[in-house]
Automatic annotation (TrEMBL):
PROSITE patterns: GTP_CYCLOHYDROL_1_1, GTP_CYCLOHYDROL_1_2. The lineage of its organism: Bacteria, Bacillati, Actinomycetota, Actinomycetes, Pseudonocardiales. Zn(2+) binds at C81, H84, C152. The gene is folE. It holds the Pfam family GTP_cyclohydroI. This is GTP cyclohydrolase 1. Belongs to the GTP cyclohydrolase I family.
Length: 192
């Protein structure tokens, strides 16, 4: 079993001071009721959004020779746009066609969370999850679809409230075989 972790540590004291200066520079009066602790809360909140939790990669021998699609749908995803540092939130649908090993199902969500907990673009996040699973689990195929709402697009700029972005990465059999590809996409429900 392999332990996956992100070793980058957060300096919450420095982050709190930077948040305080940032908010003051934007004209936020921090000595009003309810705002005194905002820089500390802001620092802790971003530290949580940007720090991946370690997890243990758990796989098991595929003794039964299972060769059908395994799919976890609607895995919650939250990250921050690397261009504006505003959140994007949605769901990931992650599937694979097992090879010699099968994956502990919770690890599909853990891998997605691992790559989401850093400044990201959705396209890269989708590909990183698929590539990582392809490399570490060695399945016959991997499919990842992410649907997310980007607050950098819905709360500011064009303010396209309710719009969602869909990205996909398909590898191996799920990319090469049209029937397998279609089965994966149908089961994700992205054709709603």
């Amino acid at each position: 079993m392999q332990v996956v972790s992100d070793t980058a540590g957060a300096d919450l004291g420095a982050a709190e001071q930077a948040a305080r200066e940032f908010l003051l520079a934007l004209g936020v009066v921090l000595d009003e009721d309810g705002l005194e602790e905002t820089p500390a809360r802001m620092a802790r909140g971003y530290a949580e959004l940007l720090t991946a939790r370690p997890f243990r990669l758990t796989t098991f021998p595929n003794d039964e020779g299972y060769d059908e699609l395994v799919l976890a749908r609607d895995i919650p995803i939250r990250s921050v746009c690397e261009h504006h540092l505003l959140p994007f939130v949605g769901v990931a649908h992650i599937g694979y066609l097992p090879g010699e090993r099968i994956l502990g199902l919770s690890k599909l969500a853990r891998v997605a969370e691992h790559f989401a907990r850093r400044p990201q673009v959705q396209e890269r996040l989708t590909k990183q999850v698929a590539d990582w699973l392809g490399h570490h689990v060695r399945p016959h195929g991997v499919g990842v679809v992410i649907e997310a709402e980007h607050t950098c697009m819905t709360l500011r700029g064009v303010q396209a409230t309710g719009s969602r972005t869909i990205t996909s990465t398909l590898l191996g059999t799920l990319r090469q075989d049209p029937a397998s590809r279609q089965e994966f996409l149908d089961l994700t429900g992205v054709h709603r």
